[in-house]
From TrEMBL:
InterPro entries: ACT-like_dom_sf (IPR045865), ACT_dom (IPR002912), Beta-grasp_dom_sf (IPR012675), HD/PDEase_dom (IPR003607), HD_domain (IPR006674), NT_sf (IPR043519), RelA/Spo_fam (IPR004811), RelA/SpoT_AH_RIS (IPR045600). Residues 45-144 form the HD domain. Residues 624-696 form the ACT domain. GO terms for molecular function: GTP diphosphokinase activity. It is an enzyme of class 2 (transferase). PROSITE patterns: ACT (PS51671), HD (PS51831), TGS (PS51880). In eubacteria ppGpp (guanosine 3'-diphosphate 5'-diphosphate) is a mediator of the stringent response that coordinates a variety of cellular activities in response to changes in nutritional abundance. This is GTP pyrophosphokinase rsh. Residues 382-443 form the TGS domain.
Length: 696
């Protein structure tokens, strides 16, 4: 453990103007506050924040960050408060400490809720000041180094899994590869102990059998480049055990089949020498096609720059070589921590695009599981590169679609997307993008995100924005139902009510706004009697029995019934405009719309029934048919021709029965109204290809 004077000397070595007294006060404060607390290893607890501060000095970070590292656990684990820290160490340190502090003391939350809230607070603080992330990563790294002292295997595995899923990818996204690799290795040891032991054992065996093979190859590379007049540094190492295991799992191969387990780093003076060295290596040894990557012309999203290639050394050994300048190497290993510049007052000089995306995800996520899912999507790193027609570059996960691209460009563009062109060709929005694709988004101001997009959107930002838009639309539809029901309720009251009565009712029912009240009425969280009593106290005194209460007097007109929103068209009867309809309303659920003669209505005795009617502007729905076709060539094509001639779009076609001489199909059709559907049924019955056709 670093002694007090050693820590201060480290800081003063690279920051002579640092406040030595402040550093000493912070060291003494954390020792006093943590007092006799012990870690699982038996060491004094204050040894942990001191070691975290030591990691921060290795990154040569400013004094506020060092002090934050020393104090980062005091609010969570001692009687210290943020206000006390602000008084003793200033507002910047207090803000940073508060950002790092977890919310684990909230006992009423479930494990996933605690994890999500911790992550939410942490990411919001990080988006304001990246130093929060740097301290948190160092905190997690030191905890992982001492994880083996924890006796509970379940707890060790939980911490390791959280590290692998959240913190190692975060370290990668800010380019701190040294932290990422060590976190992954330590987590891998806990999560897959047998695989860890096997791979590290195999690597040790290769090391002993091969003797100085890594050194020999490094020397050969250096000599080849020196002969070309290049001044280089070459270092070699075996691949990371977790990296090898991941490659084995992804490719479904054994350890013996992984041939490129050696990696070499070549450091040169400038960018031109990177490409010159690459040419020399490719002329000296055979390169492996498909394994060359140029991260200098197209850096990774975290700023990583390098040239990667794979070679076959002496016709036997496959090796990976990374070529970069010395400055690139320094920035690549420690990422944003190596070159993050701060203005006066501690604000970051500039912002990182993916941090803004994470903040959008925080705003859009509705529940803990959704937040964790979308955030993990946002920080994992398998990427492709796609371009706008004007040449702007966007990095997306593999499997991303034009919808993901549209939301990456701008949230409003994603919400208005109706189609896309990839490399000039019209494609569906669910089409996966490839590396280098030029993507043009076709938009419409009248368009809005669709619930079905969640089936193929893969980025956390897109999925969070879609869910938020869907929830807003659903809330608006529920509020509309509630307002129409409210109007019905007020007409049944013994006196006319105005704005004052409504405002008083909102207060009595403890809602924040008129819209909240309408949503509660529309979602059946309030019944008619509660609303009447809140508007006119005493108005229900003479209504002892629920069956005696005044009921709805006229049908509510509805338009644009959207599956999955406030209204849901029942799949048992598939009502279309022209059918007489009724709605079943259950607490907390959308209104399920049935045709009045639907047999399933008998199951809705526990639901609140709403008399509905179709709005004149309703533009169609999906009807379902059952058609029995003769089993002979061309009958299916003839049925499809009838649909096309009647301008009906087939949404789904399924063969349900195959018995000679008939084939039975269920067909879902987009139709304008009941008359349109009836004409189609009549046309089918008149066809020689169709034995029988009925609406179901």
């Amino acid at each position: 453990m670093l002694r007090q004077y050693e820590l201060v000397e480290r800081v003063l070595a690279y920051a002579p103007q640092a406040d030595e007294a402040m550093l000493n006060r912070a060291y003494v404060y954390t020792v006093q506050k943590h007092g006799t607390q012990k870690r699982a290893s038996g060491d004094p607890y204050f040894s942990h924040p001191v070691e975290v501060a030591g990691l921060m000095t290795e990154l040569k970070l400013d004094q506020e960050t060092i002090v934050t590292a020393l104090l980062h656990d005091t609010v969570e684990d001692t009687l210290a408060t943020v206000d006390e820290i602000e008084r003793l160490f200033g507002p910047d340190v207090a803000r940073l400490v508060d950002g790092v502090t977890k919310l684990s003391k909230i006992e009423t939350m479930t494990e996933s809720e605690r994890a999500a809230e911790n992550l939410r607070k942490f990411l919001l603080a990080m988006s304001e000041d990246l130093r929060v992330l740097l301290v948190k990563l160092a905190d997690r790294l030191h905890n992982m180094r001492t994880l083996h002292f924890i006796k509970s295997e379940d707890k060790r595995r939980r911490i390791a899994r959280e590290t692998m899923e959240i913190y190692a990818p975060l370290a990668q996204r800010v380019g701190m590869y040294e932290y990422m690799r060590e976190m992954q290795l330590l987590a891998f040891e806990q999560l897959e102990p047998e695989a860890y032991a096997t791979i590290t054992g195999r690597l040790a065996a290769i090391r002993s059998e091969g003797g100085g093979e890594v050194g020999d190859i490094a020397l050969s590379i250096k000599q080849a480049l020196a002969e070309a007049g290049l001044r280089v540094e070459v270092a070699g190492r075996e691949k990371h055990p977790y990296s090898i295991w991941k490659k084995m799992a992804e490719r479904h191969v054994s350890f013996e089949q992984i041939s490129d387990i050696m990696a070499f780093r070549v450091l040169v003076d400038d960018v031109g020498d990177c490409y010159k060295a690459l040419g020399v290596l490719h002329q000296t040894w055979q390169m492996i096609p498909g394994r060359f990557k140029d991260y200098i012309s197209t850096p990774k999203i975290n700023g990583y720059k390098s040239l990667h290639t794979s070679l076959i050394y002496n016709n036997a050994r496959r090796v990976e070589v990374q070529l970069k300048t010395r400055e690139m190497h320094h920035r690549n290993e420690y990422g944003l921590a190596a070159h993050w510049a701060y203005k006066q007052g501690g604000e970051p000089d500039g912002q990182v695009g993916w941090l803004r995306d994470l903040v959008e995800i925080l705003d859009a996520s509705h529940d803990p599981d959704e937040l964790l899912e979308n955030t993990k999507m946002a920080i994992y790193q398998d990427r492709i590169f796609a371009f706008t027609p004007k040449g702007a570059l966007f990095q997306l996960p593999k499997g991303a679609t034009p919808i993901d691209f549209a939301f990456a460009v701008h949230t409003n563009l994603g919400g208005q997307a109706v189609g896309a062109k990839i490399n000039g060709r019209h494609v569906p929005l669910r089409t996966p993008l490839g590396n280098g694709d030029v993507v043009e988004i076709i938009k419409s101001r009248n368009s809005e995100p669709q619930l079905s997009w969640l089936g193929f959107a893969v980025t956390g930002k897109a999925r969070a924005a879609i869910r938020r838009a869907v929830r807003q639309k659903e809330r608006a539809e529920v509020a509309l139902i509630g307002r129409k029901l409210y109007e019905e309720i007020t007409e049944r009251l013994p006196t006319q009510v105005g704005k004052k009565a409504l405002a008083d009712a909102i207060k009595r029912l403890k809602f924040n706004s008129e819209e909240d009240l309408m949503v509660a009425i529309g979602s059946a969280k309030l019944d008619d009697r509660q609303v009447m009593e809140a508007l006119v106290p005493g108005s229900t005194a003479n209504l002892p029995n629920p069956e005696d209460w005044p009921r709805q007097q006229r049908a509510i007109a509805v338009r644009g019934l959207t599956p999955g929103m406030a209204f849901k068209l029942a799949e048992c009867c598939h009502p279309v405009p022209g059918d007489r309809i009724v709605g079943l309303r259950r607490p907390g659920k959308g209104v399920e719309v049935h045709a009045i003669d639907c047999e399933k209505l008998a199951d809705g005795v526990d639901a609140d029934w709403i008399d509905l009617s179709w709005d004149k502007r309703t533009d169609g729905a999906v009807g379902r048919l059952r058609a029995e076709l003769y089993n002979r060539p061309g009958t299916l094509a003839e049925m499809a021709g009838i649909f096309a001639k009647n301008h009906a779009n087939v949404v789904n076609l399924e063969m349900t029965q195959r018995e000679n001489p008939f084939h039975t199909y269920l067909v879902d059709l987009e139709v304008r109204d009941l008359a349109h559907l009836t004409r189609i049924v009549s046309a089918l019955r008149a066809s020689d290809a169709v034995a029988q056709a009925d609406r179901i």
